[in-house]
Amino acid sequence: xxxxxxxxxxxxxxxxxxxxxxxxxxxxxxxxxxxxxxxxxxxxxxxxxxxxxxxxxxxxxxxxxxxxxxxxxxxxxxxxxxxxxxxxxxxxxxxxxxxxxxxxxxxxxxxxxxxxxxxxxxxxxxxxxxxxxxxxxxxxxxxxxxxxxxxxxxxxxxxxxxxxxxxxxxxxxxxxxxxxxxxxxxxxxxxxxxxxxxxxxxxxxxxxxxxxxxxxxxxxxxxxxxxxxxxxxxxxxxxxxxxxxxxxxxxxxxxxxxxxxxxxxxxxxxxxxxxxxxxxxxxxxxxxxxxxxxxxxxxxxxxxxxxxxxx
Length: 311
Hints:
The protein is of the alpha/beta class. Helices cover 37% and strands 24% of the residues. The protein has helices at 23-37, 49-65, 74-99, 135-143, 171-179, 210-220, 252-260, 269-282, 296-300; strands at 4-9, 41-46, 106-108, 112-114, 127-133, 147-150, 156-160, 167-168, 183-186, 192-197, 200-203, 225-230, 235-237, 245-247, 249-251, 287-292, 306-309. β10 and β11 (200-203) form a beta hairpin.
């Protein structure tokens, strides 16, 4: 039976990519095709935090000037960013395949993710979207009724609710494509948040954490591995301090102890650790690996990255 893996690419790695030239993105994503060449089933998920905020801001400003435009919904801008980023990644992966004379099919699936409409996250927005803001821009957004936080000394960020994903609604389609040999792109930005009530589905104003959705999808697919790509080659404790220590491998118990110690920042590494733990708890024989996108190739060969396992 073929092994399967889910590779979650952070949205912050993508804004610098020139949409007219995917060369840099091809270099970053080459290991994805390496996996496929080794006979593995591969699903790529990706973030959209910076992009969805920029799209929303642009449309919101446009709507202020043209009152005949329809209401701007976060779900709509989520779908726009999910489609545009998925198309960009698709071109990059296809170009890698064509350059190697490997004709893997690459298919992007606009994904919807079921959430609970009573999730307490709706009362406490925490998910940063859009670019970093100045103090003046943050003040203006607050005046508009939006939630803004200071982000680790780097500036201000607009934050929206981030409910917990309950089910990937296109799971069976993703599974069918994967079984047919496609490299599948899914769960862009965590998927479009969707609720279900009285036999009807509705979108809600929120952004789902991409890593949490990726862990759920990896569990539903019964994947062997979940790769969570971030800005550092490994997870560290005492990050940025003189006694900083990089971690090669941690178990569920060790990770939970580090969480209790406050080792992982809520806005950066903590969601990835929590997603990794969620995956290994549901897939006892699987493993999660956290590394940077440019170290993915080395991580595959065991040279870097932090492995997280149940025991």
